[in-house]
Amino acid sequence: MNNSMLMAGLGWLGTIAYLTGYILLCFGHIKPSQRLYHLLNIIGGLGLIGHAWYLQDTSNILVNGVWAAVAVFALLRGNGMKRSKME
């Protein structure tokens, strides 16, 4: 597997994580205070940062870095300590 395929896979992982978290939230399957929501945002952010880094896309690195950092902060602060039904 070459670097291009690996980075594309990382980007898709991030995309799927972001969308899964948002869809679960919108349809009431999880709440924003649940750990799963924040973990999906962290995974999504890191995946998309990896892909953006490979492409040297600084605006996407910034926005996904901030998004992931907010999710990490929320977990550390205790906002994401409720377990979801899916965990």
TrEMBL record:
Keyword check for Manganese: no
Segments crossing the lipid bilayer: 6-25, 37-55, 61-78
Residue ranges annotated for the CBU-0592-like domain, each copy included: 10-77
Cited Pfam families: CBU_0592
Keyword list, A-Z: Membrane, Transmembrane, Transmembrane helix
Superkingdom of the source species: Bacteria
InterPro entries listed in its UniProt record: CBU_0592-like (IPR058058)
Keyword field contains Transmembrane helix: yes
Protein name as annotated: CBU-0592-like domain-containing protein
